[in-house]
Amino acid sequence: MAEISNNLLAGLLIVAILVSVVGLANTLTLIPVIRYTGAATTGTGKTNVTIESAVSIVLLRNETDFGAGYPNSNGILYIWSNNTAPNWDGQGGSFNNGSEGNGTDYNTGTHVYPFVVQNSGNDASTCIRIRSDKTASQFIGGVAQTPVFQFAGKQNESSAWGAPHDSCYGTLTEAWTDMSTSYVTVCDTLNHTDSNDEIRIHFRLGIPEDAAGAKTATVTVAGCNPCAAC
Length: 230
What we know:
Elements: H1 6-35, E1 57-61, E2 77-80, E3 115-119, E4 126-132, H2 136-140, E5 148-155, E6 177-178, E7 184-190, E8 198-207, E9 219-224
Antiparallel strand pairs: 1-3, 2-8, 3-8, 4-7, 4-9, 5-6, 5-8
């Protein structure tokens, strides 16, 4: 067999090298196709939000006007606000020969409006407290008998289920209680649910027989949580 020249050997060597390089390139091209076949992965995270409790109240009615009239000629006269009739809780409470107030929206004659307090915030345990800028003597006057200035709370939106579904599902001061120039609690837990978030605050005055003149007292109603905060 004839000898293969050096030039031919060199040419074959280059071809062999090129084939090897091309083969390596093909091999490298196939590797990522085999390895990246698409394995799925999942992750978890968190979304945080903080909703703060806001204490807010609104006075839907903020004036109690007893009108004008005469006290008793002998002894103290008691008058008080009412909500559905001139006589609150079945008892008389108006001036002699005078006015029963300027409330007319119950179609039962004139009467005296109480305050109506609504929990307009998102705090479910709002405490309702009350105070006056005057004592009974400073507000009403008279010395023949001791003047009286009192308040009492009533449910304005009560549930057929009763407590704890009533507007005030804590302690409600329903008995006549002396007004003070310092805060006194009317309801220690007023609900914030729209259908059960209102209470009434009624007022009762004891007018001595010698009291006279136009009388005005400024009453402040506060909402807070806890009660000691106001």
